[in-house]
Automatic annotation (TrEMBL), chains A, B, C:
Binding site for substrate: 112, 150, 323
EC number(s) per entry: 3.2.1.23
Positions of the Beta-galactosidase C-terminal domain: 627-682
Name by which UniProt lists this protein: Beta-galactosidase
Single Gene Ontology MF annotation: beta-galactosidase activity
Lineage: Bacteria, Bacillati, Bacillota, Bacilli, Bacillales
Domain of life: Bacteria
Biological-process GO terms, alphabetical: galactose metabolic process
Every Beta-galactosidase trimerisation domain range: 406-611
Organism: Paenibacillus donghaensis
Length: 682, 682, 682
């Protein structure tokens, strides 16, 4: 069922809205796209009223003409199903399809994504329009693929309509069968929340202190939303598979409360992502919030890659962004748009579409700039995109299908992400540690993957990595711990941080010493612990023969239980001065590390040293910290991507000689990589 | 229809609430008012329940006595229609008259201004009470004028009751006639918002991301609210004109979502304003928010003057203010109350009423201090007011009817104000630039007007000014651009800032190079632009022979298109270093300036120099920056107001000899103006 | 009716939830409790569904077994009535029992305390379960007392269900009898709020500016809530008195909108409090918010003591706290748990129960750590508690029933607390001044009480204190002023701050010179005043022969009216430089001070000197400022508690020789009190 992202050439393209522009402009638009080297356009994802201006009356004329004209210019077309924006007639006639806020306010027509996934009526109407579109366009030679809906769970990812409460209840019945089991799983005996009839069970509802639901219910809520989102998308996916078997199916996004891995495995040929690195420059404290700025987008791209080794960027930033009153951002500087395009490719993209061809002159996104300005005259962004088109036309074929190489993976899982949204005793730590590890690995030029542990994860998947960093898996089942144990036995190195292993998959705490399910793996217990906040003074960690580092945010005070454990760092002060803070347990051919705090870059650098991680190009390449290194390779060859995120040039040094795939230039010895410059060395 | 603000004498007075006090106090109150030189009182505007204790039962006894007694003391009376506070019986019986929040919460009896303007029932009940009042008091010799309602659109200026949705739909039908035209104007094709039936059209309603309506709908919403407010006021205005033709009609306020110019032109004899300069001292960062502090109130007074060349201050601050839990402010220092009174007069007031006679002992405004304290004993504020009464009794007649003189106007318009509430790509810039220009002009002693460009604005109105500053008119019609072109041709100098001219009156972007409708006027295009925020480092502007200035908040990178254009400043750094930032286009006898950023005081000072603006008293008067200069003049004479906003004395120097209207003192050479002191030189 | 807190021994114990744990664990739990010296457990307060799994079906089996087993281990049992958490079946069947927010959102099952006190149905169901419990357990020898509900008014203390509006209306009818009197009391003529029918009267409802009700209505709202809470508790209290006369009755809490004095006088044997001093370490600016940190908890304990001279700590912090997503706090350091236990005792506790035996593994409070960790193994907290148990077993009997000694009281009253919640012109000043006075008194080792002035307060109650500090009683009746006058006449010293005495008990302002009802007492009037905020520069006060101090937040400018008044401080600058800021009026044998600003510690220290206050142990004990001194005494002996709140040791010096009750150690001369150390000297 899976189809490749790109099979003949690297696909470069753009999002296009023929319905927004006078039809007489289309010809010129398509012509210029082709001249710039574009091969693909996306359209249709917000056009339900064009396709079905009244219920049951379908009109394909406008898009028939738009698609055929694109095709005649040699452009492939991706069609979006238009279900992200129901027509006014639909929500007016069937208000039960609307989403409702936690406080009970019904969301109305006027923006987008105001519907719920549970309404049988909405599913019926979505099935109808998808069937019509699939039947009409499945045979069109210009249409190569489909995007289901648009950015599922963007903008809002909670749902409290009556249909949602009912669907949640049904989902719970499937999961727990009996109310007793539900009460047990939700710890309902606490605060007398025990349910005596299914009709008493709802999604979280308003509480005296706002948004303080039962935490186990809150975790199940997110699991339900994810399953419900996938089930909503499946209605369309099944129709597209049945009616349009020759065209591929994807969707775009990476949003909350959605297991994108399950979505992709179950329904899609590959996953797509919308990449806007300039979000990193919006806030005044951006440097603090995201110290890697636009380079930090690579971590999200790594997640996308964990879903689809090769993927599509359905929307690649092509200018300043912003809605009318929010997300307003500076213009990318010359070179940045190109840099970000290659950032996507370096991380695994085989298809990139810019968002969008021409800036909208109306609506909420008039400042979400496309390649063309309102005036439709030549500009810097068009020139930059055309340059990329030209480069990729030359080198694009070589790259497609090649996959990234990494020795280390940052491990995540959905249970902890979802539980950690509510639980501040581990959730914020996870994001902090991911960011700090990513900084350290990037600065050391050690490419990493992200790996989501799921029920179906195999030892083989883990064993591809020498090192796994699993920062704070508060929820850890014994089954997962056993799998990780096998990984270590066969030689893997595994790193945990504080707050590991103390919860079961219901989000209840094990009645065991910390780190709970990871105790045997680590060979230690946690004697005591403390939040480090407020008036509590932080301490630091003294490492054996390495620089001291701060013991951030939370301190587990460790107690060694096994002979195989070596203490690698101790706390420097406070009443637990001298107690173990970092331990290493040798098991089988591998090692398990326990680090008792939230990670910072300095601690990660110490660990990188201890774990023996280094740049895969260390032998032939000297790079300054500000240049990113990524490697894509296939059976034949290996592509070393170098990306300079700074405005100032960076000096690199190549031992021996390499060729830049983009320019064909041969590089030997010292070389100056221009500001925002890119090399793909072979 | 228009009646003058004051015809015989400067009217000084006070707001009075006879219903709040034992009747036995009235006599003493009126006597003391007269002794202090007061000539006028306002009353009745919150007394509906007194006039109509039950529906249809009218009782005028209390106010008959209060008005007659005032009249017998020689005090004129302004009567407020009491429609700002409907009686409890009214909202209880007719809940459809209540306003509703965006989220759907109905506002209830218990504060004030909780009604909507659209309910036919409320209009009917307002018409009834107004008719009764007008019939009863039109012949009363003590009653000289009427205030319609009180502070229209204060506290809340959005309306979402069912009546409002219906009225909006009707307003749209009038404006657009067909749904197609509505869909076109609102760009409804974007995000599939197209309406197929009028019943689907509403005022903005809750959206998944809160308060993110269609921006064109949001602009029409404000226009509707303004028209609806005026139409609500017109019901009363028409009754008062018909029933009480001998009395003048005004209303007080300067609040959002209301075209006060249209309101005044259509319904009023003159406009009134409530002036509370101490609002400038409430917040700890007041110096940052409003660097001119109380002096900055002059900008609002300039707006009032643009509506009525002479006006009434219906509420002049007479002490510390504050509701029970908000707007709490320090007490004015000795002299400040007097200073602020003359600030109002210097800007055009011919009538000033203090708010209020005696501080309320009950209700939300117990800290909104009147002239009298709760204890009703002599105090500093009463002494200060009596002093003003005495001064004005001498000089008041000379001033009335004289109008302010200015060579420069800051230009505004309602479309941009209303669009800019939502659109952060120009709205905040407008307020910032207005503030910075006002600072520069004030510090240079260059009096300015504010001019609202409206459909009916004529060349003659513009041509009264040598210079027009129109900071960031994002919305600019070709008609307005043409009018401005004529202004320049005849010799005017026009200054634009960044973000000029790119939107049409629907708030949609022109498909033209920036500055859109102003392109020909300016002789330039905008090659590129960027927000300056977040991690983006700001640059500065290098001026020809003048100090560098910061290029704040937004940078337009200019491209000169015409020979008539001279580059007056260039960017100092970043990838657009050396590119034009400031240009001057010579057209006809005039000039058009384009300044590519948001204005700051330093840039305004450079431009003031270039534009040849200077103090009209420069030849005979030396003033320190902290003293304000305003000029009012009539056919015979010119009054130069000097206002010292500092607590410390200011040294001024007069060449030749002038007489202070207030003290009769002759001033020659160096003179020390006391802290908070005032002079009116002739 | 009143029973003592403890009669035979100091009761140390713990909160226990048998329903949360496998029954097989109970035996071990009880055994270990006894080994640690515990004598009492609380249980049952969240177990309604266990007792009544379906409406009208009662089951006592689980708690019968749990209580009997506890009893057989020698543990006394306190039973909570379970009405803080209604069962799911109850709120599902009778939704009228639910509380509703101000905005109209109904609070639902899923957290706790989501019910209202007004619903007749809820009162009926609470009466039924309480009757069942009382009948069942009144004869049980293991059950010694009852806790009504749990933390009344915690989490939410406002109520807007339909039942609440109705109950408020009834309460008002009782209070005012006629609508005219209501209108008068609420100053309804202001802003035309006059009511013409009782059906128009509601609790505060949504207003155009949110939460801006009529202030007199807002004050009555709090009085109503307090009365309504007590009336709700009385239903249970009456049943318990009638059915279980041999067992004591208490409840725990100290929450808003509740007159805990009236509650205790009317219904309880003694009051209980839940003490969590680590709340003081949660926020980063904790040092600013609460400069005394955990030591500041003593002020709350002083309030508890004003309700019950001896009291119970029903929940004493036993580890780090926190819900899943809020109130997360660091772990107490070794010794702090013990320190806080003795803090409670030093302030009057005769019974202390730790919260809780074992940390919950499920629900919102999984991070509200009990003595036992999830793993149920020995830990530091258990060891620390066992040590305390051992100490108190030795010394506990000596202490019980002894009461604290203080020469000075900080005076408060409910009217001002409740009015000051809304009124920022006095409410925030009260809290600030209380905090600053408490700091000064603590640092000078002068124990203080808190005294609530109520209708039934007698001269004898006041006369126990040499000095009364009544910082900012804006509301002050002439009756209270007269009582205070008697206090002064007989030799008392009374200190007022700014904003004293200007409101009557309706919250309306007297038509008298400030300080209104306190004018005669103080012998001064307030000539003028000002908020000190925003751009207003603060001034300072020059004292006669004492250091200058800041004149914070508000400045009353005083005018001396009587010969008996001496000016003790004047303002240093601004237009009121040299005017009186602090005065002392000699009346009878006493003094009345008026301090024209909000207190700070420095001013309080000057006043302490003037008032002749000093440490009661000054003659024999030298203490550093960081050590707290409290004294409890009975007919026979006096216990001097010394508590070191710092981690570092403190050096004290004893003249002569004293014995530490806890260790039996004899202390003479210099002694080093360890970090977090405690002494009870005899």
């Amino acid at each position: 069922m899976k189809k490749p992202v790109a099979s003949e050439q690297f696909e470069l393209g753009v999002c296009y809205y023929p319905e927004h522009w006078p039809e007489k402009m289309w010809e010129d638009d398509y012509r210029r796209m082709r001249e710039m080297g574009f091969t693909i356009v996306r359209m249709g994802e917000f056009a339900w009223s064009i396709f079905e201006p009244q219920e049951g009356c379908y009109e394909f004329g406008l898009f028939d003409r738009a698609i055929s004209l694109a095709h005649s210019h040699g452009l492939k077309v991706v069609l979006g199903t238009p279900t992200a924006t129901p027509p006014a007639w639909l929500t007016d006639r069937y208000p039960e399809v609307l989403n409702v806020t936690y406080e009970g306010v019904t969301l109305q027509h006027g923006m987008r994504r105001h519907y719920n996934y549970s309404s049988p009526k909405y599913r019926e109407l979505c099935a109808a329009i998808t069937t019509q579109l699939a039947e009409h366009y499945s045979g069109h030679p210009g249409v190569v693929g489909w995007q289901i809906d648009n950015e599922l769970n963007c903008e809002i990812n909670v749902f409290y309509s009556e249909s949602d409460h009912i669907a949640f209840r049904e989902w719970l019945k499937q999961k727990y069968v009996t109310l007793d089991q539900l009460n047990e799983a939700w710890g309902a005996v606490f605060w007398n929340q025990t349910y005596s009839d299914w009709s008493q069970v709802f999604l979280p509802r308003p509480t005296p202190v706002p948004k303080q639901p039962n935490p186990h219910q809150a975790l199940d809520e997110k699991r339900f939303i994810s399953d419900n989102t996938i089930s909503f998308a499946k209605v369309q996916g099944d129709i597209l598979r049945a009616k349009a078997p020759g065209q591929w199916v994807t969707t775009n996004g990476l949003f909350g409360h959605l297991d994108s891995h399950a979505l992709t495995d179950g329904l899609l040929d590959f996953f797509s992502y919308d990449s806007y690195p300039q979000f990193s420059s919006i806030s005044n404290d951006a440097a603090e919030v995201n110290p890697l700025r636009d380079r930090g987008w690579g971590l999200s791209l790594s997640v996308v890659r964990s879903i689809s080794p090769n993927f599509c960027i359905m929307e690649q930033q092509s200018g300043p962004g912003g809605w009318v009153n929010r997300m307003d951002m500076p213009s990318p500087k010359p070179g940045q748009m190109r840099l970000w395009t290659y950032q996507s490719i370096a991380h695994g993209a085989d298809m990139v579409l810019y968002f969008r061809w021409r800036t909208a002159t109306m609506g909420n996104e008039i400042y979400w700039h496309g390649l063309n300005d309102y005036h439709n005259q030549p500009n810097r962004r068009l020139r930059e995109a055309a340059g990329i088109g030209k480069e990729l036309a030359g080198s694009g074929q070589a790259i497609i299908g090649s996959v990234t190489e990494a020795n280390v993976a940052i491990v995540r899982d959905y249970d902890n992400e979802w539980d950690g949204e509510y639980d501040v005793w581990h959730g914020p730590f996870m994001w902090q540690s991911n960011k700090e590890w990513y900084k350290a690995l990037q600065h050391k030029h050690i490419p990493n993957d992200v790996l989501y542990i799921r029920e179906q994860t195999t030892l083989a998947e883990l064993a591809r990595y020498k090192v796994l960093i699993y920062p704070h898996p508060a929820i850890l089942s014994d089954e997962t711990a056993a799998l990780l144990g096998q990984y270590v036995q066969q030689g893997g190195k595994l790193v945990f941080g504080c707050r590991t292993g103390y919860k079961d998959t219901r989000g209840q705490c094990y009645m065991r010493p910390f780190p709970g399910a990871a105790r045997e793996l680590c060979g230690i217990t946690v004697e005591e612990f403390t939040m480090v906040k407020g008036t509590r003074q932080p301490t630091s960690i003294q490492w054996n023969g390495m620089p001291d580092t701060g013991a951030d945010a939370f301190n587990d005070i460790l107690h060694v239980e096994e002979d195989t454990v070596e203490v690698m760092g101790t706390y420097a002060s406070d009443y637990y001065a001298g107690k173990p803070a970092v331990t290493r347990n040798t098991r089988g051919k591998g090692e398990v590390w326990y680090y008792g705090a939230v990670f910072n870059e300095e601690a990660a650098l110490n660990l990188i040293e201890h774990l023996g991680l280094r740049s895969p190009a260390a032998e032939w390449l000297e790079l300054p910290a500000e240049v990113e290194l990524q490697i894509r390779s296939n059976a034949d060859t290996s592509f070393t991507f170098l990306l300079n995120y700074e405005e100032t040039p960076a000096v690199i040094r190549v031992a021996g000689s390499k060729t830049d795939l983009l320019s064909g230039e041969v590089i030997t010895g010292e070389y100056t990589l221009e500001g925002y410059g890119v090399l793909i060395l072979q």
